[in-house]
Please model this.
Amino acid sequence: MAKEQLRYDRMVETALRGVVREALTEVAERGLPGNHHFYLTFRSAYPGVEIPAYLAAQYPQEMTIVLQFQYYGLEVHDNHFEVTLSFNNVHERLVIPFGAITTFADPSVNFALQFQPVVPAESAEIAAMPTRPTAVERKEKDAEEAKPADSAEEPKRGEVVTLDAFRKK
Model:
């Protein structure tokens, strides 16, 4: 009987999707700092994606959204995020599972991630990713510890990460 191998490719993709979730969580709590802005490409027909029918018809395979100046109500959950964007001056609520994301980029710091779409059966792995504490939980912890805030550090410059070396061929 052949032994199953560890799926490092899946582990790495799951961890990197956690980067996307963490970035979106920070933006949901504090807004976009400086010149940061995000391009998110996702599979529009992926299970759990909720977009208006006219957008699904216009983008039947993939759709790219930009979070920069006009986005509203960004909410980050364990396995998806929700955001309201304006399309032809009409506000529309989008629900996008992390497993549907194929590309995440922040051009302001030359950072990008590309993903293989998650098979819906594997989306439980995405939902099981550890989450960051919310702003309220952090404030409560900070109040308990009563420590002064750390001085602001210079943000590290991003880098493009390719997963080709880890993919099973």
Notes: Strands lie at 38-43, 62-67, 71-76, 80-87, 90-97, 101-106, 111-114. The helical segments are 8-30, 53-58, 123-127, 135-145. Residues 123-138, 154-159 have pLDDT under 50 and may be disordered. Residues 8-138 form a domain with the SH3 type barrels. fold (CATH 2.30.30.220).
